[in-house]
Amino acid sequence: xxxxxxxxxxxxxxxxxxxxxxxxxxxxxxxxxxxxxxxxxxxxxxxxxxxxxxxxxxxxxxxxxxxxxxxxxxxxxxxxxxxxxxxxxxxxxxxxxxxxxxxxxxxxxxxxxxxxxxxxxxxxxxxxxxxxxxxxxxxxxxxxxxxxxxxxxxxxxxxxxxxxxxxxxxxxxxxxxxxxxxxxxxxxxxxxxxxxxxxxxxxxxx
Amino acid sequence: xxxxxxxxxxxxxxxxxxxxxxxxxxxxxxxxxxxxxxxxxxxxxxxxxxxxxxxxxxxxxxxxxxxxxxxxxxxxxxxxxxxxxxxxxxxxxxxxxxxxxxxxxxxxxxxxxxxxxxxxx
Lengths: 206, 121
Known about the structure:
The complex is a heterodimer. Chain A is mostly beta strands.
């Protein structure tokens, strides 16, 4: 059961108060540096947990319960300035990024509000001149690749991320065709991402 | 950020004070009437944005031209914010034009009557 601090319960039960219930959003993009963008649905910046949440227009739609689909929420961020769109373009549409939504009370920002937080994963995104729409929800197991990699004898699984963390090649070459021959040329065959044992000949253990 | 131009013909006259109006751009009050006969009120956001409106009828042609350039080229009506000094208390505000300033010739004189309405961004 969710519990709220006493100060928040008192504030919630007041008939009249000047405090505002604000929604904060913390978007952690799935880029290399895990860029974090903090936004506040307010007309001035909000400092919460020592972080500044920038006043920025965003909207949250109601939860979408469609038969046969995983429930999702559309989180819309203003795209007038194209500020967030640059992150979308550099992270393949931000799919896989996380969005943390926090409800805070403007007069009780130091209160423990961990029960008023929800964390979602971005499962889809779209952008137009007015809004960026991020569909938040649980990742669908049907969209997951299984098995995770292709098992091919002479084709490296890491070729798309040449010089990436799995490839680990750190030399001067800029291209790779994904073959073992090329990998040997680059003296990097120990990190070859193919499955040589699946080729013709040799011994197979099943 | 651009700054509202200094218009040498502007003076804090009785006409300015008579036309002076100011208020809040959006009332933040959220109100919910209940079946029990009481009303619950909250604030929607935390900052109150103000607007100011005033009219001065004796701007010279040079000042009118300066203002016109500022409106049409520098800030392009309400698109860009600028720094404006409240002539009543010399406080600086970051504002935009809430509506296009109303510029009219002052009948029977060589001056221009200009109404300005600005709002905090």
